[in-house]
Amino acid sequence: MKHFLPLLCLAVSLHAGAENPPVSAPPDTATPSAQVQQFTLDNGLQVLVLPDRRAPTAVQMLWVRTGAMDEVDGRSGLAHMLEHMLFKGSKALPPGAFSRRVAALGGQENAFTSRDYTGYYQQVPASRLPDVMQLEAERFAHNQWPDEEFAKELEVVKEERRMRTEDSPRAMLMEQLYATMFSAAPYRRPIVGWMSDLDSMHPDDARSFYRDWYVPNNAALVVAGDVDPLQVKAWAQQYYGPMAARTLPERKPRTEPPQLGIKRISVKQPAEQAYVALAWKVPALRQVTDMEAQDKDALALLVLSAVLDGYDGARLERHLVQTRLADSAGSGADVFGRGPAVFLLMGAPAKGQTSAALEAGLRGEIERIAREGVDAAELQRVKTQWQASQVYARDSVMGQAQSLGHNWVVGLPVDADVQLLQQVQGITSADVQSVARRYFGDDNLTVATLVPQPRAQAANTSAPSSTRPSTQSAKEEK
């Protein structure tokens, strides 16, 4: 787990009613064509266009600012379920037709759901871009399907939960970790949904969620590749412009109350190896210009995570894996999102070692930095790798489009990747040492430990799994 990746997901936020000039990255971090142009349609749909003429291909991504965090108790999994149902038909497209038509155009397509957003994408020859724009606009505006299609797809989603979560000990551990860590924040619910909520889900639940959130003033269209921005704008107006804007439901804050002490859970699952995950609540990064104290701390926490686990031979590998305390160890600073932020340490104890020993070892690495700081050479290596990651990000048209859409969702500006690269140069060893001292006490900590159980015993208590039906819908959940 190498954690420069979150910075590759930084890009653009558009403001309603504005049409802005292109903003380009400096020459050392972008190709000359890497200029994002922003438009806002009359119905509020944001349009981001990034020309990249190195290959005759184009990517269209439609980002909807709704995800699992917009669900309510008793209806978890709706955002993910609706992602599946977008492939099941519209007024002009029978079930399965969307995917068949994209394939006939020589394209690839899929979708994904997270706590913060839902996204749909197609990559096609650039000459076929207007065809997929028309297709995506049709299903976005006119999604509809019979109840029987919903019932069939719901069984697919249930099997997806069994395969990806219930049959995966570490996934079950992380699900329980988030459910324990948060009491009010909506991140406590799993993206795929609780099985009991899936069992009680009705077709009209999904239709209601679609009517509430799938509106142009809650979405962004991202197009990258061998395209002309003004032509893309014209197509966007033609295909997406006729959709009517609607008032969105009120989003309640659902603020997480202060934690009053350490939370600790054991998760018993059939597994060969123990695992331990430690999660601290930390500040989120909300803006990259005129940073407030919590934004600067969030950036320093990203650097701290990179020092621990951001490159081959980083501290967790050297001090825990190579010394045979752990078979694996990782770190992550999840500070980008619409909800609360989390700093994670996790790992599997080596043979002959205990979860308690590994937990102490993981915490010991933070404590070492809190005492000693980070030396100049180590910090410079992190910054150099960070800068290189920005260059590598430009190799993929899909990656560039994903960065733009992701950062529209979380409200960052168009040049956030460049701004953060500049901001990180100012992070000092003292900054990293300071956050290591201030954010890793017990009162913000939740610990989840996987306790392996014999597989035969689990087989007697687990529900039988079924053969997963085939589906044309997207299967990626983040």
From TrEMBL:
Q: Which UniProt keywords apply?
A: Signal
Q: Which residues form the Peptidase M16 C-terminal domain?
A: 203-385
UniProt region (Disordered), positions on chain: 452-478
Q: Where is the composition biased (Polar residues)?
A: 458-478
Pinpoint the Peptidase M16 N-terminal domain residues: 52-192
How far does the signal peptide extend, from start to end residue? Answer: 1-18
Which InterPro entries does the UniProt record give? Answer: Metalloenz_LuxS/M16, MPP/UQCRC_Complex, Pept_M16_N, Pept_M16_Zn_BS, Peptidase_M16_C
Q: Name one Pfam family in it.
A: Peptidase_M16_C
Database matches in PROSITE patterns:
INSULINASE
Family annotation (SUPFAM superfamilies): LuxS/MPP-like metallohydrolase
Q: Which domain of life is it from?
A: Bacteria
Identify the PANTHER family for this entry.
METALLOPROTEASE, MITOCHONDRIAL-PROCESSING PEPTIDASE SUBUNIT ALPHA
Its family remark reads: Belongs to the peptidase M16 family.
The cofactors required by this protein are: Zn(2+)
Q: What is this protein called?
A: M16 family metallopeptidase
Q: Give the source species.
A: Comamonas nitrativorans
